[in-house]
Amino acid sequence: MLPWVVRRTRLPLLSLRCVDCRSTSATTGPGRFRVNANHKLLDVWLLVRCVSCDRTSKLTVYERTPVSSFDPAELTGYRVNDAELVASRLLDAQFARRNRVTLDWTGAWRLVAPPAVLVAPSDKPGVHLHGAAGKSGRRPEPLTGTWPGRADRCAPAMRRTAGDGQDDARPYAARACATSAA
Q: Which of 76, 90, 109, 182 has the most CB atoms less than 10 A away?
């Protein structure tokens, strides 16, 4: 099994209709918040920009919320336009539902996978080749599936390989020993 990771290359675009040009895409750009105080109540908006006409719009993060209900670190993040806070708000389902936006992930991610080591599948069950002739350079014996001169040892690490090259993790050593003894 190959490990792989999906990495975000940029923040996703927002599917949001512009009131000026009727475009359906908006971006957060560098990610800016606007915080407005009205006595002891705060409004917090995420500023987004139309990709076609550069018109700025506001998406509500918090509306008329008491200052005491904010975590001080979160409030500081809104004031300094923290990029991680922008990303977390964009990925918040409640935020998207409240502002009636959806995310467009096209081109916003890439798949990172380590290079695969390809193992040639063998036409014989139980033979696991590490290249054309194996690590030793010798071909396996055709009937036993063991390496020449090793039938008496019956290495427990031998495994059966399915036709598609995937190791199904079933030990083949018992069958190889029984075949070589006959």
A: 90
Tally of domains within the chain = 2
Nearest to 128 by CA among 170, 84, 71: 170
Max distance between CA atoms of the chain, in angstroms, equals: 92
Are 102 and 159 members of one domain? no
Supply angle C-alpha 140, 168, 123, rounded to 5. 35
Q: Say yes or no: 149 and 163 in one domain.
A: yes
State how far the alpha carbon of 181 is from the alpha carbons of 43, 112, 151, 177, in Å. Answer: 82, 47, 8, 6
Mean pLDDT of 148-157: 45
Decide: 118 and 130 in contact? Cβ < 8 Å: no
User: What is the C-alpha radius of gyration for the chain, rounded to an integer number of angstroms?
Assistant: 30
Print the domain residue range for 138: 118-182
Residue whose entry in the numeric block shows the structure tokens 């409030």 = 75
Same domain, 16 and 70: yes
User: Do 70 and 142 belong together in one domain?
Assistant: no
Pull the structure tokens for residue 23: 């475009």
Residue at a domain's end among 112, 128, 151? 112
Looking up tokens 């014989």 gives 124
Q: Give residues with Cβ within 8 angstroms of 59, minimum separation 6.
A: 14, 16, 45, 46, 47, 48, 95, 99, 101
What pLDDT does 144 receive?
45
